[in-house]
Write a structure and sequence with these properties.
Blueprint lengths: L14 E10 L2 E11 L4 E5 L6 H9 L7 E5 L8 E4 L11 H5 L1 H5 L5 H13 L15 H14 L4 E5 L7 H14 L4 E5 L3 H7 L2 E6 L4 E7 L11 H17 L1
Parallel strand pairs: 3-7, 3-8, 5-6, 6-7
Antiparallel strand pairs: 1-2, 1-4, 8-9
């Protein structure tokens, strides 16, 4: 199968968290939290449940329901262009699979024959070529997650936020979609939440481990080489063991 590639015309910026403080249900979730997410690279966030990983993505996305002090900025870029994949697939039940993949362009009245062709290529690569005319209710949970991922990738934004994007997939499909996502997001600024240390080792240029309440950075692991990495690679294996030790200490 010929590989399909997206091309972005905007230079991806870094993401800077400067002195973020935020309380949730009366408990301090972040206190003067600062970190930088590298421009044009993939950063994976790991840490115990409830430590604020998903909240960081919501802060970057500009979620209006969050009230916090501090600042998030993008190297002086006011509106960098962000695509966000939440944990819920958020598919519109009355639209077909293909129309859900094209939702962003549909809302902007930007659908073209070329974009439809791109959506078809992505559905094919994700193993959904025969599902394009079905409604979300006719799909399994894993299929729905694949559709949500394709919708996020097709937006082709400089900044991509993904919250557990492969969690509902079986092992073989997960590897295939990780490979697809790594290829299509290469050179973009990606911030991805995951609970899977091996996934982080395969896809992350940098892996950040958070502790919770209030959230703090435990450690960062820098990875060399292009993604997706081979799980049997020595660097991947060493990083995996290190990550497991760090995460066990935070549980």
């Amino acid at each position: 199968m010929q590989e399909f590639h997206l091309q972005s015309c905007t230079t991806p910026p870094a993401i800077h968290f400067d002195s973020i403080s935020l309380s949730f249900d009366g408990e301090l979730l972040f206190s003067d939290f600062s970190a930088t997410i590298g421009a044009g690279s993939c950063t994976c966030l790991l840490g115990p449940s409830g430590c604020g990983k998903s909240t960081l993505l919501k802060i970057v996305s500009g979620n209006p329901d969050l009230s916090y002090s501090g600042r998030v900025h993008f190297n002086g870029v006011e509106n960098p262009g962000i695509s966000w994949m939440a944990q819920s697939d958020l598919l519109l039940p009355w639209l077909s699979v293909q129309e859900n993949v094209l939702l962003g362009a549909r809302l902007r009245s930007e659908i073209t024959p070329e974009l439809r062709e791109m959506a078809g290529h992505l559905l094919d690569e994700a193993g959904l070529a025969d599902q394009g005319e079905k409604l979300p209710a006719e799909l399994s949970g894993g299929m729905r997650q694949r559709v949500a991922l394709l919708r996020t990738l097709l937006e082709d934004r400089p900044v991509i936020l993904m919250d557990e994007p492969f969690s509902a997939l079986d092992a073989l499909t997960r590897l295939k979609l990780q490979n697809l996502a790594a290829r299509l997001t290469r050179g973009k600024t990606v911030l991805m939440v995951t609970h899977d240390p091996m996934e982080a080792m395969r896809l992350g240029d940098k892996v950040m481990v958070l502790r919770g309440r209030p959230a703090g950075l435990v450690a960062s692991i820098e990875m060399d080489g292009a993604t997706p990495r081979n799980p049997e690679d020595g660097q991947v294996q060493q990083g995996y063991v290190k990550l497991l030790k760090l995460l066990m200490e935070e549980i």
